[in-house]
Amino acid sequence: MVRVSSRLPTSARPAATSTGPLARVGLQALAAVVAGFVAMGVTAGLGLWAAGAADLPGGFTAVLAAVVVMAAGGKIELSGDAGALAGTQAELTAMPLTVTLMGALVTGFCFLRPLRHHAVAGTRELLLRAVSTVVLWLLALAGVSAVARHDFPLTIGDGDEQGSLMDIFGELLDAVNPTVGFRTDVGPTLFYGLLWILGVLVVALLVSRRTPLPARLVRYHEPVRPAAHAMLLLLLAYVAVGLVIGVVVAATKGHAAETLAVLLLGLPNVSWLALGVGIGGSWEGRVDGPFGLPMPEVLDAVMRQGDGTGDSTDLSTIDLSTLAAQDGRAWWLLPVAAVLVLAAAFVAAVRSPARTKLWQHALHLAVAFALTMLVVAPLTLVEARFGLSVLGIGELDSLGGEVILRPHIWKTVGFALLWGAFFGFLGGLLATRVHRKGEVESSKGPAQKGS
Prior knowledge:
The protein is α+β, with helices and mostly antiparallel strands. It has helices at residues 16-50, 60-71, 97-112, 123-147, 160-172, 186-207, 221-252, 256-278, 297-305, 320-326, 333-350, 358-379, 409-431, and strands spanning 76-81, 86-93, 150-153, 179-184, 283-288, 316-318, 382-390, 401-407. The protein is globular, with a radius of gyration of 26 Å.
């Protein structure tokens, strides 16, 4: 009897055996990228619709793409044209952080989900997933950037006086109707987009409590992940509080569409500024001209005051005292910050191993809170300028404006470090009264590792 072997030579084996895992990882990375961009697109689209951008003449899709590009860390360049003898200047630097947050949460969740069923994450598999996600993300960002370009005619008011003024410019100065347009600066967009997606993936791994880590990184699970997860909860808690306040304002004070637009586009911009101010940090800013920030009236009022010098460096300081001078309710930012930071410290301590010492709780939360504000505070930066000049002589006050909002980064980070140390210690002290997972009585043996 002749026995025929069913084994094939190595060269004759089906290629699916080796390409199957690669294809699966690629599809999962593609799903994460598509889900992230869809989340940002839907959020940005609803926000622009609430802001009235749906009525733009043929430019809604381009504006939507531009908002998504800015939310992903990209750079949009503004340009203008007002004829041979008149000129326009325009500049915009801002991140619509609601759109950014939605994209980061959805992308991070989809990136981590396939790993949750693994006992240990292999270094090669994790790198393959990360590289696939990054490459596909940059390709998608490049595609969206190509759509983010448009030119709009600039309408200066509806009054007869302003309309006559523009007619005079056109007849006497050979100036055409001014236009403003925007384009994506592709090089910086892809560079900052790379930093953005890498940051999202790293933060997702840091804050996840269940996703396994490669063997070499397991030792960082206990000191890093509880505090990092608590910081994510703190940021989301501030967004949730801001959302509740925004909904109440929309329901009781009118202007529901405008309020909804702010919530869908820039809610974390306001909420995380409130966090920084509440712990003692500060910003500086100015609003000049008819344009302004879609932010609370108290903030706009402080930014329009200036420091009294009247020059180009006339920036108002935005902190608890200056806000409270406009509205005494601003003092509530301090106790709200204390309660929420203490809650985050308690959560971090409860989810840390029972053997963690109080000074370690303080150190872990201090570092985590300082790093959080080091990342969050710069994201609230806003710089927007527009001006129309005739014959190169100055700017017309009614046709120009400037909005500036800059964080005092190191001051805010320093206060975050102090708050993290104090409340980390206090949270660890409170957690000693709570039975934690993995904690056993000393008579039954040494304490096990916490989750």
